[in-house]
Amino acid sequence: MNPGQEKLVYTLPKCMNDIPTHFCPGCHHGIIHRLVAQAIDEFDLQDNTICVGSVGCSVFIYNYIDVDSVEAPHGRAPAVATGVKRARPENFVFAYQGDGDLAAIGLSEIIHCANRGERVTIIFVNNTVYGMTGGQMAPTTLVGQKTTTSPYGRREDKEGYPLKMAEILGSLEGTAFSARVAVNNIKNILKAKKALKKAFQVQLQDIGFGFVEFLSACPTNWHMSPLDANKRIETELMPYFPLGIFKDKINE
Amino acid sequence: MNPGQEKLVYTLPKCMNDIPTHFCPGCHHGIIHRLVAQAIDEFDLQDNTICVGSVGCSVFIYNYIDVDSVEAPHGRAPAVATGVKRARPENFVFAYQGDGDLAAIGLSEIIHCANRGERVTIIFVNNTVYGMTGGQMAPTTLVGQKTTTSPYGRREDKEGYPLKMAEILGSLEGTAFSARVAVNNIKNILKAKKALKKAFQVQLQDIGFGFVEFLSACPTNWHMSPLDANKRIETELMPYFPLGIFKDKINE
Amino acid sequence: MSRIEINTLRCKGCLLCTSVCPEDILIQGDDLNTNGYKFVICDETKKENCRGCAFCAEICPDGVIEVYKTVKSKKRDS
Amino acid sequence: MSRIEINTLRCKGCLLCTSVCPEDILIQGDDLNTNGYKFVICDETKKENCRGCAFCAEICPDGVIEVYKTVKSKKRDS
Amino acid sequence: MSENKERLLVKGNEAIAIGAIDGGVECYFAYPITPQSDIPEYLSRELVRLGGEFVQAESEIASINMVLGAAACGKRAMTSSSSPGISLKQEGISYIAGSELPAVIINITRGGPGLGGIQPSQGDYFQSTRGGGHGDYRTMVLAPSTCQECYDLTIWAFDLAFKYRNPVLILGDAILGQMKEPITRWKEREINPNEGAEWRLTGKKGRKQRILKSLYLDEGAMEQHNLRLYKKYKSMETDLKWEEFMVQDADVIAVAFGSIGRIVKSTARKLRGQGLKVGVFRPITLFPFPYERIRELARSGKKFITIENNTGQMVEDVKLALCGICDCGFFANMPGKVSTPEDFIQPIKDQFN
Amino acid sequence: MSENKERLLVKGNEAIAIGAIDGGVECYFAYPITPQSDIPEYLSRELVRLGGEFVQAESEIASINMVLGAAACGKRAMTSSSSPGISLKQEGISYIAGSELPAVIINITRGGPGLGGIQPSQGDYFQSTRGGGHGDYRTMVLAPSTCQECYDLTIWAFDLAFKYRNPVLILGDAILGQMKEPITRWKEREINPNEGAEWRLTGKKGRKQRILKSLYLDEGAMEQHNLRLYKKYKSMETDLKWEEFMVQDADVIAVAFGSIGRIVKSTARKLRGQGLKVGVFRPITLFPFPYERIRELARSGKKFITIENNTGQMVEDVKLALCGICDCGFFANMPGKVSTPEDFIQPIKDQFN
Amino acid sequence: MYQDVIIAGFGGQGVMLIGNILAYAAMGQGLNVTYMPVYGVEMRGGTANCTVVISDEEIGSPIIFHPRSIIVMNQPSLNKFQPRLVTGGLLIVNSSIVDTSSVPKEKYKTLLIPVNNIADKLGNIKMANMVALGAWLGATKAVDIHHIEDAMTKMLSSLDHKLIELNKKALQEGFNIGAKKSEI
Amino acid sequence: MYQDVIIAGFGGQGVMLIGNILAYAAMGQGLNVTYMPVYGVEMRGGTANCTVVISDEEIGSPIIFHPRSIIVMNQPSLNKFQPRLVTGGLLIVNSSIVDTSSVPKEKYKTLLIPVNNIADKLGNIKMANMVALGAWLGATKAVDIHHIEDAMTKMLSSLDHKLIELNKKALQEGFNIGAKKSEI
Ligand SMILES: Cc1ncc(C[n+]2csc(CCOP(=O)(O)OP(=O)(O)O)c2C)c(N)n1
Ligand SMILES: Cc1ncc(C[n+]2csc(CCOP(=O)(O)OP(=O)(O)O)c2C)c(N)n1
Ligand code: SF4
Ligand code: SF4
Ligand code: SF4
Ligand code: SF4
Ligand code: SF4
Ligand code: SF4
Ligand SMILES: [Mg+2]
Ligand SMILES: [Mg+2]
After folding, report:
1. Which of E106, F79, F169, F241 is the most buried (most CB within 10 A)?
2. Taking the complete model, does pTM exceed 0.90, yes or no?
């Protein structure tokens, strides 16, 4: 290419459909969707992937990422993914779940899936609320945080402390990779990409269960502007939900 | 009392009914039932206790321990106990669950109950199999152990490793006491009594959730004589499931 | 001499008690009870040694054993 | 000079892009698009400084931005 | 509607929550799901303020089992959800029925099957009236069609639950849950400290142990238990409830429940305007079902058409009522289709031929 | 029964497991529960030996959802359980039906409600035939009455599941699951690698993306979906199946299914011995139900009695069939009561008056 | 007395609020009323709408497929609901942002009102919804304006007094326009 | 040809095994047969029983409330099942451990056989069940003994040859006694 010549350096990932999203302004789901799609492209997996969608604001993931997809009932994506992977071990299988989905109703399924060491990759979007249903308390809601069902703020002696899924799953033998990342700034986005890559690799290399927890903003239900919500990730979420890698069998 | 005079030093706890048990010969459920009953007597709780039974070989606990009782569906005792305790915080509430009940179908309920710090006490009997239904694999079945549904032995790469519930629950903020004990010999029985006492105290003193995991023999489904089964507790279970206290807010 | 009472009708012959008795007093008998179990009995030759420690009763899954302890004559009344 | 293209119809005016642009090129405009959002535009005065770093595009939740980089003339062709 | 009392403009969901409060609910356990989340949102605020217990459970299964626990203590306990969530509660509901405990369960349905959608639908009629769980049990089922009824029937539901020691289900849909209408509160919240004193768990102090369970293994015990339950379900017929709207002189009676019931009333008014004698029969208790009254009306020579927002469920009950007298027409408003009075004009007219 | 082929003496549960293997099951997911645990026990050994997948799931919910996943890949997938476990699967079954996926679900029932007991019962008829889950869906329901039928119908169930892309339920009880009887295997296990090639998920290589889901939010979409499903359920009537036993000249026909069906046949033989012309009609497909054939028989003047091991469920279908022609007697053998042919003699005799 | 209306616009335009105020006012006047919002994920799309039915008789259906009047605050709402309006029905259009050339005028009683601009002039573009509601009232006289004002005071109680007064002014302004325009 | 039998005793007495062998043998002989065990928690109690029905016609009920014959290996089983035996039915009692004074003799064809002692004498008390099965066969002739032997060989395949031979001997011994006693 000649100097001065223009090159398209950033556009939608190949496996993503070029359509408007249904997300609210400033919702991180959109960013996370794209990171997942980039990873699929990077490993050239579009033709070979089966996506397991879940119920939550990400319910339309199959509209955005152009891969074969099946819809799991609320919380059951890890079980559905297990069924898919056992049926077609030759496929790359990932599921995408919210924090209500994964840490509340689906807690048993995710732990057992990880513990069995299923060769699947789980993308976990922790936005500390039930987004889709209008901002109710989630198992990851911070202590003191007001939601529509914790109108007086989450009380640690009644509702307990937020669950740290990346740590809990990281402690299980079957988990080959577990990390917590964020997409609130460019540095963290780069780290998130690396983590995603590893969570893909542990499946592709038949090592075990792969897991990435994303801290994610929900401006709508946090009742914040998108920019303030984005800031909250760092100021309020990270102190309780530290970013980091909690298990990495590739580097062991 | 005069020297040479006789004194009854061991008989059934006051709150236990004097009836034959339905357990198989050498089953530890019988010992654990009695330890629980002794603790109830010790704290003088018989009149004030509500017991939540579960589904498993211990399903008839209410026939043996003479306290008000309600029967929970398989795995849901922690949720039922939550309902009971919220309804009647003035009562002492305990549930008694097997490993299939607590660590398989009821995993979500026990973790959330502990995480909320519900003021209830959970007695967990880990005999590494589904006793009542005839010896199927449990989440606590040891790697390599043959059961009726793991006829080739539990395979770590397909079924994963046994879950260590006392450790997992101990790691949650809401848990005030968590320990693993055994009743295979007198020394361990004494330790078990102490642990039980603390698991009662954290509820009585409104500190949080109390949990005791008992390693328990199931001669029938281990296809062992009662004595051999009793030995297996030490030779095979303890190396993987170490006895110990994993959380103790009383001593903190 | 302390002593134990065995409710032989309820004994299931699991022998756990035999594994903890410091004096090896408990042994399996030859008879079946009405439930078809070979219940344990006291070894008549050792019976006298019973310490009343209640280990046997503590471990018996079926609550079959009651223990009577005799206060040692050396001790003062209390 | 590198440059970006903004699909203003799809922009939701969240302004995340403005928070990461090292050159502060992106600003909120005054107009609403057909979805009722005040979409972002390039600050015409700073536009030229665009580095083609694609930070804005990386963070945009709605995939609104495409980035075209101009190969620096100092570098050799590759 | 009393003109003197203050009227509140509230959603059906809120009317249910307010009805629960005035009906004396002490413990409420739920898990969010559209289109009923206003109920937990309201009660997390108001019930907690009044000193009641609200737990947002980790799942629908946990919440129904918390209800079981609180109900065993003789408390007025409630849970609410929507179709898929209610499916998940089926095992628990069966246990509550089997253990003969009182409980109020709200189902503000959505369209199914599966994830379906949050549109109005009456697809859960069978599940509600035939005991979607296992075993031969029944829940009482009440179907409101206005916000006022949402309030009234919730209060009644608690009374019935304790009268029969049985779960009582309120079956609404997205229209009822989401629409706002004025309601009048007519009941003061009161908690009866002696309710269930004969059977509830309190610790056995001063009396014999109580065991609340559904396990019956001894020979003949389960048979007896089932027979007793069966008789209890039969006895519920003393609490039948329905609305008759212009049936007296009607030639054709449209049978419809819940939100469709009110919409069909609009249709009937329109058709009366066209000179057609149309009446509406709206069952309010879906179980027990007012078979006898329908049979009576049929004997007087009227024609029937059932209209539902599903592919045909209550129509079976109407047919069972009409058995041997006449048949029943049926019009299926497909789940997901938002119905308007116009939709039902032709189907009803067709009955006149 | 061919006398040449080797006969195996197996439990009904095992016959189902063997039927699953010969029917080409590739993935089986289950959770233990009496009285069906022989199925996972058999398949954990034999299916795994043949290279199939068996996962003992952590719960009934997980297992039905694993079935959903495997079914989405076009595999012959199965789960089995018993009443309370089946209640827990209702949400998943509704999703599978809503997503139009093939699956075989075995319910070897116990007595309910609640924990109930492991005694024989037919208390889950409504749940099975009316879609115990939410929404307007149906599962095909097959009711074997011998171990041979356990085997035969399991094979057929897989074929039907793929034919209709719908869950097919086998409804047995503790008698059938636990009794041993000789069976003859007549089918070789074969796996069709192209089954479901038009819709299954394999990765999109070489074609457009496929989405298997039950969510329909766009205006009119759910309505259309429900309409299509409704038509599909109607079309299942081409696969109706039942047994007629001495009905030709019968004055009274006893209608009974499953294990009760075979026991009533013994009663009929006894009554024939007493000179009473009794026949037995045994529906084998419970959904779709053979309404038309029963109606036909009724038109020829026969009397009917339904006998069930519950308080009256299938009798509603028989009544719906007979609607307007005649009524139907009913005898309830209470769940938990182990029935013998003698129990039914008097009730049937009573029909002759 | 019977009246129904569908009110539709962008999420931020306050269409649900004026629907609520209208319903509340109707109740205050002793009428029967139903208010039916869209709900759930439908709201994520960025448009919102609600239906209000007012009557002195029992109200059957709270859902109206062919409304007697509609208030459309943006283009997509016009496109969606105008075809369903009954012939001769009342069509109130926010002409500040809707392409008025696309508005059919013959079949309906059409009021093109630049509610955004009017509100802007009054001091706050956010009150455009009140102008629209006022216009509808002026045209239909379905509910007394003082009941609307009471309802408004109750619903906007979190705002300071001055803002409420401004809102009332916007309502009145709209009412006047509506009344005048519909006389023609 | 029709025959049914309930076989009952303690868990360890092998009653399920002989029920299975009998069913298997009947199948080998080309007959229809059903075998119905008790199952689940009922077995925890320590007693076990099963029902075998053999017929050359289709078998309706595998469950028999009034059996034509019963084999009771212990006292509780006698107490439970004897009252249900049809008048004139065959009652085989393990008289080694059952209180024979409690056995009614007139109403039934009663065979008191000390199967424990016989088995013990033959070398292993565990074969008492085979003696009892043999006795039943001797009395009923329901199935050819060689089919029983085939079935036994198949079912006991894990045992060594010598033990199988011993079991056959026990069966034969029982058969002889049963045949002889029932001639009387
Ligand atoms: C069984 C069941 N229960 C409840 C719901 C309602 N529901 C849909 S999404 C959701 C939670 C969404 O929260 P989360 O998983 O955190 O995802 P987010 O929307 O925040 O991304 C709930 C409770 C459902 N669809 N199914
Ligand atoms: C929903 C449901 N699923 C399954 C069962 C069957 N079941 C009864 S007990 C049990 C497991 C028993 O194992 P465990 O909890 O370990 O207790 P144990 O008998 O070993 O003491 C199972 C699976 C049931 N009753 N309900
Ligand atoms: S509600 Fe929250 S999570 Fe859902 S789309 Fe909006 S911002 Fe995103
Ligand atoms: S099966 Fe196992 S756990 Fe159950 S009673 Fe017997 S020995 Fe105990
Ligand atoms: S009390 Fe102690 S010494 Fe006496 S028999 Fe028991 S264990 Fe042995
Ligand atoms: S421990 Fe108890 S049951 Fe076991 S042998 Fe000893 S006395 Fe008998
Ligand atoms: S590419 Fe870089 S410099 Fe250019 S506008 Fe985007 S963030 Fe700014
Ligand atoms: S990040 Fe994207 S959607 Fe947000 S303002 Fe920038 S371009 Fe618009
Ligand atoms: Mg969330
Ligand atoms: Mg266990």
Report:
1. F79
2. yes
